[in-house]
């Protein structure tokens, strides 16, 4: 057996074989399918035509220019398979020359946002191909929606971590204070990751398995059940919901 001494070179005992540590291979995080980008319009109440029950939905729209495939990456050329999608058409003077040159290779119009969707196979996609929401999804499908949450600024422990406040009467002098954050002599420090006051919100958030209630092709909007992170006009990333054993392998 090999004997390891910290970071020094391993020594081999007499009659033993050299043991080489194996490299750790991380599994790639694939999407369940290609997705699209969209814009949050707002929330409303949608009444189900079958039973008349109210359903809280978020209305999602699409800006001019839509979603266009701007690059197809393959394992042979880039080391992995992915589809790069552009969204939100803008004027040419809003982009740099390298950005315009990159989009020009795919014969795509000037687009503000570019995102990748890592897939198992990319044979069905070509540069310049337009992606329509109603062709990729249908009513009743489950989707994962990622967006930047609304920033709340610097907040205390009660609002940020749902801590319980102290007594407001009976002589209490600790109403909304954080309380103890650790012992004294041992360990003599504050552990990393301790829940404390700080900046809240303004981070990328994903809400999983939201149901598509309605797709209106005339108004070019989509109604998704439930709340979606961010404010009105926020950029959204919509992908098919990952369901282990169905569209994602169990391993």
TrEMBL record:
InterPro entries on file: Ribosomal_uL3, Ribosomal_uL3_bac/org-type, Ribosomal_uL3_CS, Transl_B-barrel_sf
GO BP terms, alphabetized: translation
Annotated keywords: Ribonucleoprotein, Ribosomal protein, RNA-binding, rRNA-binding
Cellular component, GO annotation: chloroplast envelope; ribonucleoprotein complex; ribosome
UniProt GO molecular function: rRNA binding; structural constituent of ribosome
Origin: domain of life: Eukaryota
Annotated protein name in UniProt: Large ribosomal subunit protein uL3c
């Amino acid at each position: 057996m090999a004997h390891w001494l910290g970071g020094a070179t391993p020594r081999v005992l007499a009659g033993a074989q050299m043991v080489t540590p194996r490299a750790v291979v991380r599994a790639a995080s694939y999407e369940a399918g290609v997705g699209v980008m969209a814009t949050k319009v707002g929330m409303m109440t949608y009444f189900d035509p079958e039973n008349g029950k109210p359903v809280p939905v978020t209305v999602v729209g699409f800006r001019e220019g839509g979603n266009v495939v701007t690059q197809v990456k393959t394992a042979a050329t880039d080391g992995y398979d992915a589809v790069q999608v552009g969204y939100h058409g803008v004027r040419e003077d809003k982009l740099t020359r390298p950005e315009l040159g990159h989009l020009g290779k795919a014969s795509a119009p000037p687009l503000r946002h570019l995102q990748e969707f890592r897939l198992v196979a990319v044979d069905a996609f070509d540069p310049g191909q337009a992606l329509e929401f109603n062709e990729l999804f249908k009513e009743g499908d489950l989707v994962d929606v990622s967006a930047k949450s609304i920033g709340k600024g610097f907040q205390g422990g009660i609002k940020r971590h749902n801590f319980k406040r102290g007594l407001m009467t009976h002589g209490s002098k600790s109403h909304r204070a954080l309380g103890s954050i650790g012992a004294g002599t041992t360990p003599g420090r504050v552990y990393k990751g301790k829940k404390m006051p700080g900046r809240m919100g303004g981070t990328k958030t994903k809400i999983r398995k939201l149901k598509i209630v309605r797709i209106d092709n005339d108004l070019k909007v989509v109604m998704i059940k439930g709340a979606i992170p961010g404010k009105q006009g926020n950029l959204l990333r919509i992908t098919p919901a990952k369901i282990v054993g169905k569209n994602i392998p169990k391993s």
